[in-house]
Structure formats: structure tokens, C-alpha cells
Amino acid sequence: MTAHILIVDDEEKMRHLLSIMLERRGYRVDRAADGVEALDMVRNTPFDMVIADIKMPRMDGRELLSRIREMDSPCPVVFITAFATVDSAVEAMRAGAADYITKPFEEDRIVLAVERTLNISRVMAENRDLRRELQEAAGGRDIVYVSEEMARVMDLADRVGRSESAVLISGESGTGKELLARYIHHVSPRKKRRFVPVNCAAISPNLIESELFGHERGAFTGAVRRAAGKFEYASGGTLFLDEIGDLSLDAQAKLLRALQEKRIQRVGGNEEIPVDVRVICATNQDLQQLVKHGAFRKDLFFRINVFPIHPPPLRERKEDVVPLAKHFLSKMTGSPRPLTEGAGRVLCEYTWPGNVRELENVMERALILAGGDAITAHTLSFLKTDPSAGRQTSAFSLPSEGISLEEMEKELVRQALASAQNNQSAAAKLLGLTRAKFRVLLRRATGEPAED
């Protein structure tokens, strides 16, 4: 992966000279004229290091260093200045600078400082990733299961994790597709690099290309500076594209090109940027049906569907319900909380249209209702269980006085949303509809669509 360096100096000639030196060595270089401009760029682009003059207008190098060190993911800073003294060098190093170079300088001195600082940058990135993994493990992010169905899924995840193959995780909303993708990343050779999730359904179609590939300054209204996209940010690691079925056909074409050529172009730019990412996609839609109806590209489907994994819905692995419930209770309280046999029966009889996500929400509500007591069947009385749900055995009988079809439609939409904890995809399945059709009914019922 090519290192990305930001040069900050109020002298244009100095910026140009340093750029030539570093680009000749194969580094990617951006430039800023002062600390204010540089700070904006660092906030939007994951630079590997910054080379900054100390004395600059608006914001000097010392303040820039201080502001960068306050960020969640700081990068190392090397100072360069014509006003060097022993005291100023000591002051800069105490402030946290990675190195200190005086003008005039030789190219070899610059290159040596850059190589040494990039090693520091790599260690910092690895430490951040390790801290994040430890936080996730401490937060109870492990996948909990005892069922054979999930054991088979986890065996597949282990096998594909060791490879570089593209993975497509399909399943209902709330089944833990992102958690499974994180697990695959964690057991892969890329585990020390970034795992970058992108929810394709949550991004405006007009912005998805910029989100994935980045943009150049002035590429569109509001693009006041260059910004790196998720592909660049994830380079060397794993890019997780959730709700891939919601991408427009135009975005699908650009994504396919990036996956095939392993190179991207920022919006408004001409530079071909190499990227090294392992892509994992997820969807709660039937992509093969979307392909048949022309809503999803066949060639992209084959590209991402190299290794399909389908985590089953919670209703098909009832053995996992009680262990998961106990896991969530321990996660929320920090210690085990009693769950009676009656409560376990109530949980197992429920159909869980919202799957594991719904179960976690239910246990949070039960914990509040129970106070300091055990979770009992009475605690879970708000959970309406119906063993025959989704399996009607008799046809609907029209009353002699008739009905209002419009009002019944609205009521069914409201009930489906309530049962599915306001998850549109799960509510649509309860009514035997596609998500698109359900959204049409939702607009009629409420005047505006709800969000997942």
C-alpha cells in the first residue's frame, strides 16, 4: 500500500520541492498552504504522516500538531523549519513531533525521516486496530450459538476467512450479518488492518460514488477539498458493503470496475489509484430475483457471490434463543441475571421477525421492567406469542356489513411494523411483500416512510 503524505508549508516553492522529492520515491503527496487548510484535510483523509513548517500564518505547525494529536486516529508529524535551535528541537519533540528537520536540507535526510516516521505510523495503526478489537471483545461482540445450524455457518466463515475470496452474506435483517463479516475479517490475514463498514442503503444515490471512491476539490457543489473514499481508507484491510442490493445500476457498474481492476478514480479526478481490499457484501434481498428483473447486474452478482453464506433466522435455531438472551443480559448488567424456565419458554415460542436484533431489544426492555428481580414469564408478558403466526389455516371471512379495505391495509401495516420493531424489511416479510411494495403501502398509511 502506497504511503499518503501531506506537506504543509506557506512557501509554494518548498511545497513543490518536497512533493517532487517524495513522489520520485513512489509516495502519494497532497499539499496545504497553512495549518487551517491542513487540519481540514487531515479530518477528511487518512494520511500516513504530515510534514509541516513550524512558522505559518493563521495556524502554525505547533498548533496543528496539537490539534492532530487530539483526534481519534492521529498521524505522526515531522517539523521542518529554517529557525532551528537546540531548544526549539527539544520543544518540538516534547510536544509530540516524530522528527525535526532544518532548512536547508538534503534529500537523503528527508527520505530517512519519512521512512522512519512511516514505521511509527504503521505501529500506531496496528495499536488502534488492536484496541478496537479488544473493546469489541470486552463489549460482548462475540457470536453466541449452540445450534448445529450456526455451527455450520461458523465453520464456513472460518474456512473462507483464511482466503482472499469475496463473500456474500445473505439473510433476514437482524441475523448478525455485519458481526459475521467482522468475524471473517478477524480470522483473516488482514486482521491487523482496517475493517470498514458501509451501509449502501443509508447513503443518498447521488453521494454513493463519492463515499466509495472519494472526490477531488470542486468535483461537485460542497466539495471544498479532496476527500478519500472508503476503498482508499480500507486499503490493505476489509471493506464491508451492507445492503448491496440497494445500490443503483450506475453505482453497481463503477463498483464492478473497481473490483475487477483493483483501481479507482475519485469523483472529478483522472488519477488511477491502486487499492488492495477484500470485499464482503451483505443483503437481506434475493439478489438472483433482482438480477432476473434487471435491478442488479448479473456480472456483479457473480463477482461478489464467490462464497455465499446464509445465517439462518432466529426462529430456525431456537436452541440459541435462551443462550443469546442470557448473553445480552450479562452484557447489559456486567454480571449474570436469572432467567426463569417460564421466561425461556416464552422466548422460544415467539417467532422473532426481527431476529437477534429484536431479541436484544426485548431483553433490554425486560431488564427495565424486572428492576433487580429475575426475568420471568410475567416480565415478558408484553411479548405477544402466537404459535400459528405466519401459518394461517383458514381463509379470511368477509363480515356481512363489509369492511374498509383502505383502513384494513393501514392497520395491517401498523401491526406489521409494531411486530417487527419498526424494521421495514421484517415487516414486509410478515405481510408476504417485497420491501419496495411495503414502502408503497407505508406511504399510503402514514404519509411518509419510516426508516429501518
CATH domain topology of the largest domain: Rossmann fold
Overall, the morphology is: elongated
For the record, what is the CATH homologous superfamily label of the largest domain?
P-loop containing nucleotide triphosphate hydrolases
What is the helix fraction of residues, given as a range? 40-55%
Q: How many separate domains?
A: 4
Q: Provide the CATH top-level class of the largest domain.
A: Alpha Beta
* Strand residue content: 5-15%
Main sheet attributes: strand count, strand direction, barrel closure:
5 strands, parallel
Name the average pLDDT: 84
How is the topology of this model organized?
Blueprint: E1 4-8, H1 12-24, E2 28-32, H2 35-44, E3 49-53, H3 61-69, E4 77-81, H4 86-94, E5 99-102, H5 107-138, H6 148-161, E6 167-170, H7 177-186, E7 195-199, H8 208-213, E8 214-215, E9 227-228, H9 230-234, E10 238-242, H10 249-261, E11 263-264, E12 273-274, E13 278-283, H11 287-292, H12 298-304, E14 307-309, H13 321-333, H14 341-349, H15 355-370, H16 405-419, H17 424-430, H18 435-446
Parallel strand pairs: 1-2, 1-3, 3-4, 4-5, 6-13, 6-14, 7-10, 10-13
Antiparallel strand pairs: 8-9, 11-12
Helix pairs in contact: 2-3, 6-7, 13-15, 16-17, 16-18, 17-18
